[in-house]
Amino acid sequence: MDLGMLRQFLVVARLEHLSRAAEELRVAQPSLSRTIARLEAELGTPLFDRAGRLRLNDAGKLFRGYVERALGELDAGRRAVTESTGEGFGTVRLASETFLTLTRPLAAFKRAHPAVEIELHQLPADAMARALRHQEIDLCVASQVIAADGLAGVELLDEPVLVATPLGHRLAGRASVRIEDLADEPFVTARPGHWHRRLLDRLFAARDLTPKIVFEGDEPGAIQELISAGLGIGLNPAMAHDVSAQVPVVWLPVDSPDCRRTITLFWNPSSRLSAAARLMRTTLTEWTWGPRS
């Protein structure tokens, strides 16, 4: 088996869909199917269940872990050699659920270190933890708790999360609101797994309530626009009040001490961080976070 075969396997394992994997890899689907079949033949066992939808089986999950670690070590070695030969600071691979929070520190970093290449990976929280352990990324910034066993982290920002309502909404004149006041309101929010949605579900579940969700999506900007258009209300971090000031909504504090988000920077202490990754870590940890950071 060669590296190309292993990298293709990881894409198929992640997507569990041959046609989408072939599209991402820019190869023909029959060719990709043959590659996976050859890999399974070499290993002497199927890696996927093919009854109905393609699913990674237990053998596939076991093998994926070894492949991720092996390729992670190879990539780390390549970056170490590049750095040791004096060909620059190299590349930093940074993951986050959303990069709206990171736009300004990233711009400052690029101005200060124009020779550093930055790879950005938008991943859900659970995928970021796995990618760190397998050295697929160097750093990640999470807005929710992740499975951080074996990882190092530092808190970057703890901020309140507010409720955004359309102008003229019945709650718009209030100084603050309780979760109970929102029980019958339509919510515009993110998909399950995103920190917005997990916070919303957690706040309502703690009060034996279920949020009424009329829209769930992946674009924070679109969510804000839909709230402004009167489609519903939504939770938004205090930082978004400044970033999205041009969108006409009303911002209301929530009378709940747990209506907050904590942004944390994580890295794998067992991995050798490149000079570029160390520079990025310093930039993010020393950044003055806040609405106008």
TrEMBL record:
Record's protein name: LysR family transcriptional regulator
The entry's keywords: DNA-binding, Transcription, Transcription regulation
Coiled coil start-end: none
Any Pfam family the entry gives: LysR_substrate
Keyword flag Transcription regulation: yes
Record flagged with keyword Transcription: yes
Family: Belongs to the LysR transcriptional regulatory family.
